[in-house]
Amino acid sequence: MIYLDAAATTPVRREVIEAMFPFLTNQFGNPSSHHGLGEAAAEALAGARREAAEVLGCQPEELTFTSGGTEANNLAVKGIALARRASNSRRNRIVISSIEHPAVFESVEYLARVHGFVVEVVPVGPDATVDPAVFASVLGAGTDVALAAVMYANNEVGTVQDISVLAHIATSAAVPFHTDAVQGAGWLDLAVYELGVDSLALSGHKIGAPKGVGLLYLRGGVQCEPLVHGGGQERGLRSGTENVAFAIALATALGLVDADRQARVQHAETVREMFIAQVLDRVPGALLTGHRTRRLPSVASFCFPGTSGESVLLELERNDVICSSGSACAAGSDEPSMVLTAMGIERSVAQTALRFSFGADIMSETLEKACDELAAAVRRVQRLRS
Ligand code: PLP
């Protein structure tokens, strides 16, 4: 099988399983317990937080473990917006980009529907980039804005935003700035102080940790209402007995992908460029989506007019090549991707989209083989539809 859907999920790395295994078995204590077993679990959890903080270049207390990227985004978006408005009722606007993941998009939709916030959406250009000048003009003076959020790297087309510039604009207007960095982990710089963000969401299963664990960086001093109430774990921000094993898994995976990031990026960019060139050359009518260069090293996304993305995907799967038609979260619906239509791509073309995403261990020969299969699959589907 040629697995080209790493942006949907990745297998758990062996080193990660080994690191978390003891905390699922003999070291099973509850970190809140006042005995040796509990204290050992608390110590291990603190160690995981320190390790993750090292990668993000922040203080361990600024990190909250969650059940995934979705929860980390929900907590930041809802928690910060609600806290900011509670301290000043004029702050009723939320500004987001038009290509956010549903974890952010649906959170602000909820805030509008249930809490009466006004949501303003910053459009993106045809390559899915947010123009800082447009972002600044939507933000305005910022005095009535509770929160701004722009994702670091897009999950469907891989476009990477100039997050430090956008964060600086928001900070200058005294508006807290959140970024969804779920797809950026392992590829992009996550040094949060340098990025200048107030909060940043990560997910474990995109980088070799299990599904069901995530992380939220929340800059010290930024007010955030908890969404889950109970025993006051995670400094009161996220109650519930901590998942020590998964926190260790996430911290281990984050450390591993950070350790060889430069080499991984260099290799992935080289093979991605080769793959893009081959696809554009060999697949009739192929259109690259997303920014030509400011994109994740691991993502190549295209539209193949005259096909249907789902049909090509099934053809490829029949030939052992696994990819995605748009994002996994949106899969199963006939609606064209909101991200592609927000980029100005016509609905009928957006319905032909496929995303190929891979890990750093991908070989150029593997992608060559995938390109052979893709060219054949597109030809078959085009023939059937003509
Ligand atoms: N944000 C982005 C950009 C994603 O790609 C995903 C997952 O696909 C998420 C958030 C959600 O993360 P999780 O699956 O850990 O809830």
From TrEMBL:
Residues 2-366 form the Aminotransferase class V domain. Pfam families: Aminotran_5 (PF00266). Belongs to the class-V pyridoxal-phosphate-dependent aminotransferase family. NifS/IscS subfamily. Its cofactor is pyridoxal 5'-phosphate. This is Cysteine desulfurase family protein. PANTHER family: CYSTEINE DESULFURASE, CYSTEINE DESULFURYLASE FAMILY MEMBER. The keyword Metal-binding applies. Keywords: Iron, Iron-sulfur, Metal-binding, Pyridoxal phosphate, Transferase. It catalyses: (sulfur carrier)-H + L-cysteine = (sulfur carrier)-SH + L-alanine. InterPro entries: Aminotrans_V_dom, Cysteine_dSase, PyrdxlP-dep_Trfase, PyrdxlP-dep_Trfase_major, PyrdxlP-dep_Trfase_small.
